[in-house]
Amino acid sequence: MPSFDEVLKEAGEFGRFQKRVFFLLSQTGITFSSLFASVVFLGPAPDSFWCRIPGAAELSERCGWTLEEERNFTVLPLHLGNESVTGECERLDVTWDTSVSCTSPLARHGNHSTGSLPLAPCHDDWVYEEPRSSIVSKYDLVCGNAWMLDLSQSILNLGFLAGAFILGYAADRYGRILTYLLSCLGVGICGIIVAFSPNFTVFLIFRFLQGMFGKGSWMTCYVIVTEIVGSDQRMVGIVIQIFFTLGIIILPGIAYLIPTWQGIQLAISLPNFLFLLYYWVVPESPRWLLTRKKGEKALKIMHNIAKHNGKFLSPHYSEITVSNEEVTNPSFLDLVRTPQMRRNTLILMYAWFTSALIYQGLVMRLGIIGGNIYLDFFISGAVELPSAFLIIVTIDRIGRRLPFAVGNIVASISCLITAFLPEDIPWLKTTAAMLGRLSITVAFEVVYLVNSELYPTTLRNFGVSLCSSLCDLGGIIAPFLLFRLAAIWLELPLVIFSILAAVCGVLVLLLPETKGISLPETVEDVEQL
């Protein structure tokens, strides 16, 4: 009986059928990256806000004050009494009622100077002056609640982490395409609920679930694409990353055109319902079917692939070699039971963690260095595009390990240089930062490909999902690490990023080279790499 790779070679390793499936599934990258980076535009800091004194709204309406006049009566006396108090997180501990004068609302407190009037922390009486609505103003994520914005991004990454385990397991047990379709449905439904959440708790719960389903759709589509092409065409695993970058580039345009955070949330969620149409055009992975002892179904799909590619399978292809491994449910122990698998798993987990922490840290750093957030975000996304082309022209010539290592090392050097360059050379500082973003993107994209190539078919989806769960752990830590360390010194996070990337650059050299080899079908194949 022929092996799967022999049948695939005769049916066409990257013909019209695979190109169509690749293009359709690649669209998932656009919606996933928009979800990944959406917090930058869902929760921008308001231009200005201040705390309203109880009763001020009613008095303002009676007196006919403008918002600016109400602010002057509320904040100006507070600032005159204590210049260090801005009126954003504290207010005068007084209450205005209808007996208060419209021209001198503090007259009843005439025996006190404004500096001696008691102060009280603000809780839920903020007034926001911002051109666009955001989750910050919707749920009052300011002052003592500001850390909750970081929490919202960490919760999303926690959802990614849960999706890596739960849906990665489901894809290996119940099938790639079923898991993909259910994940897309979940992303769409949860995204709608997030947009209309009545309170922040509901927002967090369904943002977590949207992250979980989002990770399931992205990782599963990636595995399907790499499993239906030949070993010489697996660079599609890199090309698919271009669509992730396209999502990053498109997102600021969506945010610029849509004035509300709810509209942005719906714009990045609703397209997932269109992916349900793939049920009729994207088949189950034949490699997965073979591992589940479903050779007849796999062969039927291969005949269909050959037909669409304008080829015909030989008549003696009545069966395909079925994996000799016993069909079992994957577990973490399967990934560390043998020496090569154990080494690969530990190094890949660290590489995922480092790539995600640095990448997301550099993306979120755009929100704290000032400038035009829409333009800066667009440029930073455009800088990522050359990374895929750099990998494509090098990966089949010099292999996987060297670009993987160089990407990390250059990112390390760039982050360190950016941290210590003086602010009076902005063009050089920006250039170094962009080089770091480009380099860590190269490393991030290579780890996807290498991870899928270093695990057998029976464990591939679970292995990729489990290792990439460290990517999600990095994403959980990134917001807190960035903002807390930046409060000490703005460039301190870059120094930490530099150290992590340098260590990763050395470790990945210990991985086996997978250039030009067939995807391993069994654990024994991996041990012989």
Automatic annotation (TrEMBL):
Catalytic activity: (R)-salsolinol(in) = (R)-salsolinol(out); (R)-adrenaline(out) = (R)-adrenaline(in); guanidine(out) = guanidine(in); serotonin(out) = serotonin(in)
A Pfam family assignment: Sugar_tr
InterPro entries the record matches: MFS_dom, MFS_sugar_transport-like, MFS_trans_sf, Orgcat_transp/SVOP, Sugar_transporter_CS
Principal location: membrane
Keyword DNA-binding: no
Superkingdom in the source lineage: Eukaryota
Family: Belongs to the major facilitator (TC 2.A.1) superfamily. Organic cation transporter (TC 2.A.1.19) family.
Gene this chain is encoded by: Slc22a3
UniProt entry keywords in alphabetical sequence: Cell membrane, Glycoprotein, Ion transport, Membrane, Mitochondrion, Nucleus, Transmembrane, Transmembrane helix, Transport
Domain Major facilitator superfamily (MFS) profile: start-end pairs: 110-516
GO molecular function: monoamine transmembrane transporter activity; neurotransmitter transmembrane transporter activity; quaternary ammonium group transmembrane transporter activity
Recorded topology in the membrane: Multi-pass membrane protein
Location(s) in or outside the cell: Apical cell membrane; Basolateral cell membrane; Mitochondrion membrane; Nucleus outer membrane
GO cellular component: apical plasma membrane; basolateral plasma membrane; mitochondrial membrane; nuclear outer membrane
Transmembrane segments: 21-42, 151-170, 177-196, 202-225, 237-258, 264-282, 347-368, 374-395, 402-421, 427-450, 462-482, 488-511
Protein name (database record): Solute carrier family 22 member 3
GO biological process: dopamine transport; histamine transport; monoatomic ion transport; norepinephrine transport; serotonin transport
